[in-house]
Design brief:
Strand content: 5-15%
Largest sheet: 6 strands, parallel
Number of domains: 2
CATH class of the largest domain: Alpha Beta
Helix content: 40-55%
CATH topology of the largest domain: Rossmann fold
Order of helices and strands: EHEHEHEHEHEHHHHHH
Oligomer: single chain
Radius of gyration: 19 Å
Length: 211
């Protein structure tokens, strides 16, 4: 099967990246039959059009790339998925593998990896960026670790297992507002990005430091 016969749907909520991805895949000879900026619309179109391949951003409005792939798997849709992401955390890669995703590529290396990934995947293989866990997220320094209070470490352990602020508050018999204040303090202490999942990602990666 030539690349020209391969239909692909792409999704990314950054218009410039989306256009660049479309141009890149077209140059490889693939037929881009849809480009979308949110996960919900992407899922609807994959269900409607059943492309052989979907190249999705991990973080999108509506549904994440992982959630789109999981929904398609539940409905036995045969589309092969490649996730593009800025995150090289091992637990996200493991989620992708658990869903039997065909590829997991770091955006920093997408141009180098994507053409090789597509060739490998269309031949029946899987492709994961070799740079995962290399250098981007260094282990927590001892002095930063020591700044965390026992209460903060306890909350981090609960965060790492997926509990919400409300659930943590109920478990520890404290107010949800207190949990949120602890979360804010930890984001500052650990010098993390102010994103909703930054503590979860950090806690999953550093369970040995908070155990």
């Amino acid at each position: 099967m030539s690349n020209a016969a391969i239909q692909v749907i792409i999704a990314d909520d950054h218009p410039i990246l989306l256009k660049g991805l479309a141009d890149f895949l077209s140059d490889l000879g693939l037929q881009v039959i849809g480009a979308y900026a949110n996960g919900k619309e992407t899922l609807e179109q994959i269900k409607a059009q059943s492309p052989q391949l979907a190249v999705l951003d991990l973080e999108m409005p509506g549904l994440t790339g992982l959630e789109v792939a999981e929904a398609c798997q539940e409905e036995n849709i045969s589309t092969k998925f490649i996730l593009l992401t800025l995150h090289n955390e091992l637990f996200l890669l493991n989620q992708a593998k658990d869903l039997n995703l065909a590829g997991y590529i770091l955006k920093d290396f997408a141009l180098n990896d994507l053409s090789q990934a597509i060739e490998t995947i269309l031949a029946g293989g899987t492709f994961y960026s070799e740079k995962i866990l290399q250098g981007k997220h260094a282990p927590l320094k001892g002095e930063q670790k020591s700044q965390l209070t026992p209460s903060e470490k306890k909350i981090l352990r609960l965060i790492s297992t997926g509990f919400s602020s409300k659930e943590i508050a109920e478990k520890l018999f404290i107010s949800e507002r207190t949990v949120e204040k602890h979360r804010s303090n930890m984001v500052s202490k650990l010098d993390l990005e102010k994103k909703s999942n930054s503590l979860l990602i950090w806690a999953q990666k550093n369970k040995d430091l908070i155990g």
